[in-house]
Every structure is written in C-alpha cells, then in structure tokens.
Amino acid sequence: MRSVRQCSRTACGRAAVATLTYVYADSTAVLGPLAHNAEPHSYDLCPVHAERLTAPRGWEVVRLTPEFTPTEPSRDDLLALADAVREAGRSSAPAPAAAVPDEVAEALAQAPRRAHLRVLRGDG
Which of 74, 96, 109, 121 has a Cα at 20 to 30 A from 10? Predict the structure, then answer.
C-alpha cells in the first residue's frame, strides 16, 4: 500500500504529488510525478510548491506533466487496507496466565492496598 508522503519543503504538511530531481551535469531540474519510493537525492513536493518551482539562473526546469494532482487510492491499496483491518480484527487466543502458588496469591491478596491498585485473586 502506498503511504502518504509529505512535501519536503520546511513547515509544509501537505501531501506530496510530485518528485523533483536534479541533473547537475546538464544544469536541469526535473519535476515529474511522485516516485514510487522516496529517494535520498530527490524532493517530494505538494501541488502548491510544484507549481511555484523555479530553478537557479542558468538552469532549465523540465516538467514531465503540466499539472500535478493527488492520486486516488488504487484497487491494490484498498485491498491491502482491507486485509490489514481483517488481520487486526482476528481474535487471537489469549495467552495462558502464569500459575501462581497459593501461598504467594494469599500473601498478595492480604497485602495493604495502595491508592487505586489492588491485587485480585483469580479462580483456579
């Protein structure tokens, strides 16, 4: 399932829709659709920052698509989400409680009560 990545610009919390990479040898900034994986040498941008992007003097900006819009969840994303919810909702058998000797349980049950905590003796 695709995770929501945020814009790389400082103090921007919007979802990223485009990825910016630089080709230093050609003095080119390439702005394209959001990459599938976050790369360390690229920047994810929201629609506002992708639209306002300017390059340094002497550099060229190549926009691979004229307009960047947030992508809708795909069928695979929705199925992965449904599977995760089903897995989390499955009831698992509770772990068996550790057996406590009767002497220890009796001593704990008679111990003075502290604030809101107390020990309850279980059956069997």
Answer: 74
